[in-house]
Write a structure and sequence with these properties.
This protein is an alpha/beta fold. The chain contains 11 helices and 9 strands. Helix 1 crosses helix 11, helix 7 runs parallel beside helix 11 and helix 9 packs parallel to helix 10. The site of ligand BJW has 36 residues, from helix 2 and helix 11.
Length: about 250
């Protein structure tokens, strides 16, 4: 496990703006499966193109709806872990902070993160697949087919971002601005394989930020990180906040 350098602790203490990008690995210790991890990942069992694309939903709305309903039900049983809490604590310790998450599980907000953007949406919300009307939060059990929009009668779908879809513009703009302006950029628990989120640490690096990766495994982003903390986020993020702020 990596030791946190005094220079990294000092950089965090002196940072005016800290930006963070998180991925599924940050929720792994809460018991939420990641996407690409070989044994436990969601896509060890399912083909993403069967489930996380607009075409997949058009082809088989019930299959896709049920997959999300099942994940939503499991999320009701999990809690934020020390990684989520450490990021909420870091936000309280630095002058300016933005957390951009690819996670749709809502655990950062539940841990108390405030300046938070959800790049890939939120699994708790549903919207119309045709007119886009937001139908609010959904907690009903799976039914024989997906529910229908009250305005146009098309199927409702989870308010998440599938492959080939644009990210919510306000979230993406806020994340890009923070990447350009931050002093320290922390990228935690993501394989760095999905764009445009994976561009954020690269943009931060080009703009002069100190880039810190937290991940037990190497990723394509390891090469651009100034500091690589090789360990679970639930251990390394609390250690990082402790090293900087005691
Ligand atoms: C731990 C840990 C612990 C484990 N502690 N760490 C070719 C065809 C089609 C599209 C493209 C293409 N080439 C490029 C594209 C663009 C595409 C893309 O990037 N594809 C790549 C796969 C190549 N991107 C898009 O389509 C995006 N939209 C877009 O670009 O629009 C413009 C466009 C329009 C038209 C055509 C093309 C482009 C949208 C991307 C949306 C991604 N959506 C998903 C599903 C969300 C809903 C849901 O939850 O079901 O988002 S996919 C999935 O991947 C999910 C995640 O947020 C995202 C990232 O995954 P993440 O979080 O990194 O998880 P993993 O599992 O990959 O990694 C976990 C990591 O944790 C690992 O590194 C572990 O080591 C680590 N770890 N334990 C710390 N304890
Ligand atoms: Zn509608």
């Amino acid at each position: 496990m990596t030791v946190i350098s005094t220079s990294l602790a000092q950089a965090l203490r002196e940072a005016r703006l800290v930006a963070v990008l998180t991925g599924a690995g940050v929720s792994a210790e809460s018991g939420v499966p990641t996407f690409r991890d070989a044994q436990t990942g969601l896509w060890a069992k399912y083909d993403p193109h069967e489930l996380a694309t607009p075409a997949a939903f058009r082809r088989n709305p019930k299959l896709v709806w049920d997959w999300y309903a099942e994940r939503r039900a499991k999320l009701a049983e999990v809690e934020p872990n020390p990684a989520h809490h450490a990021l909420a604590e870091l936000e309280r310790r630095v002058p300016h902070f933005l957390l951009a998450t690819q996670n749709v599980d809502g655990l950062h907000a539940r841990a108390g993160s405030r300046n938070l953007v959800e790049l890939h949406g939120n699994i708790a919300r549903v919207k119309c697949s045709a007119c886009g009307a937001i139908a609010g939060e959904w907690s009903e059990p799976a039914s024989s087919e997906p529910p229908r929009c009250s305005k146009c009668n098309a199927f409702l779908r989870p308010d998440v971002v599938w492959f080939y879809e644009l990210l919510p513009a306000d979230a993406q703009i806020a994340a890009e601005k923070a990447a350009h302006e931050c002093d320290v950029f922390i990228v935690a628990g993501t394989s760095g394989e999905v764009y445009p989120a994976a561009e954020l640490p690269q943009r931060a690096r080009r703009a002069g930020a100190r880039v810190v990766e937290v991940n037990p495994e190497p990723t394509p982003l390891s090469a651009i990180a100034h500091d690589v903390l090789r360990g679970p986020a639930g251990v390394m993020l609390p250690a990082l906040v402790r090293a900087a702020f005691g």
